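Our working data are protein records whose layout never changes between entries. The record below serves as our worked example for the rest of this section:
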Amino acid sequence: DYAWIILGREPVARMQSLYYYRTSSKRGHRATAVIQKMKLDKRCGCFKLEFDACVRTMKVNGCSFGNSPFSDSQMKYFCAAKTVLQPHMGTTTLPRCTVDLAFNNALRYAFIGLTGQINLSMEAFSLVLPQFLSSAHLIVLQIHRLNKTIRRNLSTNTSMNGAVSDVAKGILKAHLPGFADEVDFFERIERLFWCKVAVLGLLQPAVGASTAL
């Protein structure tokens, strides 16, 4: 037997993280290649621009968001969950990735945590799979200590500063293919998260709330 677990992330926060991660010094020569490509693309490369400024600049310059650093889909990882590719059987056509298909596959997971609720997610993992993740809370400490993208990138002169503006979010909504579906999918797994957390008994009653029936 096996059980699947995973962490989901709010779409804009995920895009912002991927934008900075691709040029992180931790990626070595791969980051160097990305930075060089950004330098050469004067119109749409976003070299030395923070995420929010990059989104705005791409809109002004008429750049394609479909081939941008923001276009990696979270939903697609769930769409392919049922498909097994077997090379000896020739080409296999994957079904079109829809919100319903992705969410139906998501329901097969033992638990889907949220990066925005990492502590609660680790508590849930430890209850869902205690034989493997009874000390899951320690993972949070390791993430913060060992796996954190360096905030100041001297190669791109970016610092991951500032929240994403409503203007930038509006641009992504209007111009990034599949953005509405990504948001819809995340909202579904977010609701699923809170339902499962409640069933696991991890939600604390509000202060002053009555527990009488």
Q: What stands out?
A: The radius of gyration is 20 Å. Residues 66 and 98 are 17 Å apart (CA to CA).
